[in-house]
Each structure stands twice: as C-alpha cells, then as structure tokens.
Amino acid sequence: MHLDREHCVRAVQSKDARFDGWFFTAVLTTRIYCRPSCPVVPPKPENMTFYPSAAACQQAGFRACKRCRPDTSPGSPEWNQRADLVARAMRLIADGVVDREGVPGLAGRLGYSPRQVERQLLAELGAGPLALARAQRAQTARLLIETTALPMAEIAFAAGFSSIRTFNDTVREVFALSPSELRDRRPRSAHQAPGALTLRLPFRAPLNPDNLFGHLAATAVPGVEEWRDGAYRRTLRLPYGHGIAALAPKPDHIACRLTLSDLRDLPVAISRCRRMLDLDADPVAVDDRLRTDPFLAPLVDKAPGRRVPRTVDEAEFAVRAVLGQQVSTAAARTHAARLVTAHGTPVDDPEGGLTHLFPSPEALAEVPPDSLAMPRTRRTTFTTLVGRLADGTLHLGVESDWSEARAKLLALPGFGPWTVDVIAMRALGDPDAFLPTDLGIRRAAQELGLPGTPAALTARAAAWRPWRAYAVQYLWATDSHPINFLPV
Fold first, then answer.
1. Which intervals hold domain HTH araC/xylS-type (predicted)?
2. Mean per-residue pLDDT, 160-179
C-alpha cells in the first residue's frame, strides 16, 4: 500500500488522481477524509494523516468529503493483482459475502478462522471485515438515495442494513448529512425509473476501450450479451435475483445502466461490472513495466491503457473456454447460444434483445451428453467440468487461490496449458497469466522480432512480470491481428 508519508503528501499536493483508491487523506483539523485528487486547497502536511481504506477513516471518526466524494474512488489495484488472503477477502467483501453470510461465512470461503481473517485485514487495512462491509453499505445507500425515489426504509434494507436506525446513524456518521439531506442535494434530473439505475463507474486513466469492449462484443453469446446503441449489454445472475447491465465507454468514466430484479444486488452488480472491465487496474504501472521492452514500447505508446477483458461469472467463462477449444469464435458462439436457448433461465428485456441468463453448472450437468454437438473427447471435457463445478469440487469464484485452481483445472481431461491460462487470465483475474502457445500471440511476436517459440517467448516475457496478461492484450492488438472490433 502507498502509505509512505512523503510519497502520500506529494500525491495530495499535486492532486494526483492515479492514487485515488490507493490511500485516503484524513485532515486532523476538519475531521474530513478525501481522495488524493480532491480539488480543494490541500491542507498543511502536518494536518494530514493517511489511511489505506475508507473504512479505516470512518472507524477513526472522519467523515467523507462532500466535494471529492472519496467513497466513489476506484478500488485499489491491490485486490485484483494479488491472490493472498487479504486480496481474496476484499474481493469477497466487494461481492457482498459479509452481508449475506457474515464474517464466519467469509472466513469459511477463505479456509481460515474468523479471527485470522480479522487480524490480517486490520493489519493491512486498519479495519476489519464488518467495518469494510459497513463502508460499502454506506456507499450503496448514498447511491440509492441520490439516484432513486425509493422510500428510505426500502433503501435501508436494499443497502444491507439490518434496521432503519442503523441506516440513519451510519449515513449521518459517514457523510455528516441525514438521508433526507442527501436526497435534497441530488440534481433534479436524478430521478429514474423503478429498478433502473444509471451510474458512472470511475477508472484510472488512461483507458483504451477498443480491445476491452471490442473483445466482449465480438465474442458475445446471443441472448446473453449484445452490442446495442453504443453499449455492451449482458444479463447477470446475482445472489438475490437477476439483472441486466449496459456499459458504454466515455472519456472519463464508464456509463453504467443497471436493471435489477432485487436492489439488494446493487453492490454485487457494480463489483462484477468493474471486475469484468478491469476498472481498478493501475495502467501507469502496467504500461511503465511493458515499455521497458523495446519491442513492446511502440505498442504501448500507440494505445496506452489497455485492460484485460474479464467476466462477471467465472464458471460461465470456464464453460465457454471449453466450447471454444479448437473452433472459431463464430462456432463457439453458436455452441453457447444453443445451450443458452435450451437450458438458460429466461429473462425479460424490454430495452433490447437479451433473453436468458447463461445456464448454471447445475443445469448443464443435467444435459444428456449425447445431445452435445461436439467431438467425444471435448464432450468428456465439458461434462467433467460442469460436473465438478456443480458438485463443488471445483470452485472458480473471486476467492479462488490461483495456484490451487490452476492445478485442479490441469487435472481435468482435455485441459491443457492454453485453456488453463485463458481461464486464469479472464476468469480468475491473474494479471500475470500468459499464453505463449496461442497462435495469434506467436505470430504477433514473430512480426515484432520477439522469439516465436513458446519456450523462448516465455523466457523473454519474464521481464514483463507481473503484467504478462496485459502484454497479451497488446500483442493481440497488433495491426495484423487486430482486436479492435468495436462495432459502429
């Protein structure tokens, strides 16, 4: 974490937005905490203190700045580039596990005792799991207050509070305003239709949307995903119901429209959309490392800020990776669309052409193998995968240990290094996953003058670590192998 005092003071004095979400500045004289890029005149250095999380600021008695709204900062890149206990816990908290299952449920998913999880989070973030979940509930409450006309009682329970009194006390403590006063401050145009929310998802600049949205649109499964009116749209399977997300790139944010069957799923839907678009990445750190290779530097300089397109459902992506083995993108989409039509859960989409949720592993495990239009060996791979996902012996959630998940995948029939690495890169979120055997990567490498054999390319790519998954995006996006499929 960036908590070196001199480093933090310089970032605040220069209003450096790159560090938003890395740390928070608490002002001792005003008892307010801000993001590093807060537009107000910076306080005197002796009046600054720094915390690694908004929850830690709130626990120390500081309230959120009304000007820079630090609770809406991009998330720390740490939680998506690491696979240790703290990073996995933070991904689960963002996914709403503490609100649904409590701290024992969080600890159980991680394979540790509640006391061990509490100790680790306190040591690194200055706040335990309950305080971190409380900060997330406060942010969700603020969002609902400012963007909907829902009664406060409904907002309280949708945000995860156990009582209206706790909701009122938390909002006052965190924002120094009552829920009614927060609503009075919203713009007149903020009212939206019931169940629909329009949000701005922040990110660290630069962000190049071409490969990100282009890849998602080019591989979209009909009925589950589509490109419509300048936005990527897809259905979401969520803990309390289902939803539809529409995501469109803008110069300084991602425009996000969410339609949810249950508003309690709001924080989870936001977290999964951010994760799919890799919005919490630190592109400056990534690009600076890749620029050290003279063969990659021109690609980075030409289109900096490429992200890794990920997924909102790890099990879904693993299934789709198997469907895509040794076939074209179009054929993989056709296979997936047939499964969706036959076994997906129907949904209503009055705004577009989305018709189903992608089938769950449990539903796919019931599919008769003889009905699958694929070679016998791949059919065995498919049925083994969905069987393991359905019975819980293989889990690919945000809390997964990357090394353990890789080992379990490699043990499955029909799973080679390419399939495992693409799942690690796009489903597990490993920023260092690499695909040296991918034909497109090898051709791009040869054209650039990089080694063309997998072993030699892997050796050369050691200098790109821990960001080899991002190097893959730059190689895939070479002129001869464009991934810029962004539809007009």
1. 87-185
2. 92
